[in-house]
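Re-running the complex after MR caught last week's input typo. The corrected sequence lines follow. Everything else is unchanged.
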Amino acid sequence: MIPGPGRERPSPARRLRRVPLRPRLVLIFGVVAATTCAALAVTSFLIVQRARFAQAVDEARRSSLANLRLADNLVLANPGDLGALARALARPEGFDVVGVQGGQSFQTSETITPASIPAALQAPVARSRVALVRAQVAHAPYLVVGGQAAPGGPNLYFFYPLGGVVHDLHQLRTVLIAVSSLLVVASGLLGLAAAGPMLLPIREVAEGARRLQEGSLDVELAEEGNDELAALARSFNQMARALGSTITDLRGLEASHRRFVSDVSHELRTPLTAMCTSAELLGADLPRLDGDTRRAAGLLIGEVHRLRRLVEDLMEISRLDAGAAVITCELVDLGEAAKQALAARGWEGRVELHLGGDLRTYADPRRLDAILGNLVNNAFEHGLAPVELHVAAIGGDLRLIVSDAGLGIAPEHLGFVFDRFYKADPSRPRSAGSGLGLAIARENARLHGGDITVERRPGGGTVFTLSLPRRREP
Amino acid sequence: MKGPASACNPQRPTRVAPTMESMAAILLVDDDPSVREALTMALEREGHRVDTAATGNDALAQWRRSPPDLILLDLMLPGRDGVEVCQVIRREDQVPIIMLTARSDPIDVVVGLESGADDYVAKPFETRVLLARMKAVLRRQAGDPSGRRVSVGDIQIDPAGMTVSKAGRQLHLTPTELRLLLELARRPGQVFTRTLLLETVWDYAYLGDSRLVDACVQRLRTKIEDDASSPMLLQTVRGVGYKLLAAPEVAGTR
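Corrected-run output:
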C-alpha cells in the first residue's frame, strides 16, 4: 500500500505508518479522491474559462467592427457632427459607447465616461487602429474596443460587460468545489467501510497469535477466499501447526526424559535399601576391622550414604518436575520455624538469628524446613562465619535472608547457582551435597508462590533471599 | 550412620537400646531377597525375632501361623500387593503395621495409610529411622498400665486394657487409632494441630508427615462416627487441625 521509505530520512510515508491501519486507509482514500477531483475540476474550469472569454472577445470584435463601419458612414455623411453619431448610437444593446472628438464627447451610459477609457487603448486608437483590452470599469470587468470612425473622425470606445461570463465561471467553480468535497468525503467513508472487512482477518491473525502465545497449540484460522488475506491465514496456520508439533515433540521428549529419571531413581531404591542397611551393619563393626579392609569399608559406607542422598534428591526433583508435589499448609510462625529448624540440626550456636515483625503465614512446614536447612547448610559449606539468618515481614511478603561472610560467588556464576548439578568452581573439593539442593529449594519456594534469589554482598559474602507472599488462609 | 544430621533428613530419632523391652516378633514382607537378608540381620542384632515373607499370600500365611507383634510391609509385592494384604489383616487384627514404600508418590503413601498402616518409612531409609518408628509403634501397642479411663460422650477409653467401647459396644481400634482418640479425648473441644499430634501420638521429634494424621483421623471416623462422611464428633478445624467434641454439636447451639 505504502512504499517503504528509506531508512535514513523520515518521510511523510514513514510517519503515516505510525497511524493505525483504519484511519490510514481512510486518509489514503481521501487523499486519492481529493487529488483526482482537484485535477479534474481545475482542468475543466480552465477549459470553460478560456472558451467563454474567447467567445466574448470574438463577439465584441465583430460587434464593434460593425458599429465602426456604421459610424464611418454617418461621419462621412455628417462630418464634424458628433451629435448625429451620438443619436445613432443612443440605445445600444449589450454594450455602451463613448465617443470623443477634440474637446467634445458623448456617452451612452451614466457610469461610463471618457475617464473610463483605458490608457492602453489611446495610443493605438490615435494611430487609427482598432484595439481591444480587458479592463476594470466602475468595479466591473469589461472588454473595451477602441477605433476611429473614418479618418480624422471621432474616436469610439465600445464597452462590453463581462459580468455574465465571470458570474457563470464563479458558479461553475462553486459547483466543482462542492462536488469534489462530497466525493472526498464519500471516498473517505468508502475507505472506512472497506477497512472493516479487510482488517477482520488481520484481527483474527492477531487473536490467533495471542492464543498461541497463551499456549493453545490448536489455533486454526478460517482460510476463506483466494486473496492475500487468505494466504496470510494459511501461512499462519502452517506456522501454528509447525510450532505445535515441535512443542508437542519437545514436551514428549521432556516428559519421557523426566519419567526416565523418575523410573531410574525408583529402581535404585530397592538395592539402595539393602546397601544402606548392610553399610550400617558394617559401620557398627568398623572398629573390629583392620588396615585396608577398614579403610575400604569406611569408604563404602560414606559413598552409600552419599548415593542415598542423591537418589532422595533425584526423587524429590522429579516429583516437583512432574507437578506431583502437593503442599499441605498450616499456620506457621516463620521465626519459630527457623528456630526449630536450627535446633533440630544442632545449629543454634552457629547461626545469628534476627527476627522482626509478624511472621505468621500459612505454609507447608516440611518444605519450609527443607528450604531453611538447605540455605543454611549451603552457607556453612560455601561461605565463612558468621552466618546470619534474618526473618522479617516486608510489605505483604515475608523474607528469610541467609547471608555469610565468605568470598562470595563470582558474578559470572551467580546466574547458575540454581541449576542442577552446577559446580561454580570445578577445582574446589566436591561438597557433601547432591548438587540438587538449591534447585529443590527454589522449586519448594515456587510451590508457595514465592521465590529464592541470590546476590553478592558488597563487602564480600553471599546473600540468599527467600520471599514468600503472606497467606492468610490455608 | 555417623556424622551430623544431614540437611535432607532432619529427623533425629532417639537411639534404640537393645533391651528386653524392645524385643518383638517381627514379620518382614519384602520381595527383594537382599533387602530381606540385610534387614533381618539389622533387626536380629537389635534383639528382635524376624520371620520373612516374599509375597502377599506368603505374608498372610505367616501372619495366621504365628501372629507377630509388628509387621513391616512393602507395598509393591507380586501377586496380592501390600495394600490388599493390609486390608485383609486389618479385618481381623489390629497388629501394628509399618509400610516400607519404594514409591513415595503422594498417592501411594495415602492409599497405604488409608488401608490401615500405622506409619511408613520411605526406601531407602537409615536403619535407625526404621528402628525409631518401630519403637514408637510398639510403645503405643503396649498401652499405658497407669493410664486412667477416659470417657467422652458415650465413648469409653481404657488405656491400660487397650479397649474402647461406644455405647457399651466394643470397638476394634489399632494402637495408633486408640492413642490418637485418647489424646483428643483428654481435652474435648480443644483444637490439636497436626504437628502436635505427630509429636504426641507418633513420637515424631520434629516435622512428621501430616498425612499420617489425616489418614488416621479418617479411619477413626469410620469406627466412632455414625456417618464418617459428616463427622459429628471428630471435627476438622480448617487450616489448624482437629478437635473431638464431647457431644454432637448442632449448628446454632453452643
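None of the earlier attempt is carried over here. Residues 228-285 of chain A form the longest helix (58 residues). Residues 1-6 of chain A have pLDDT under 50 and may be disordered.
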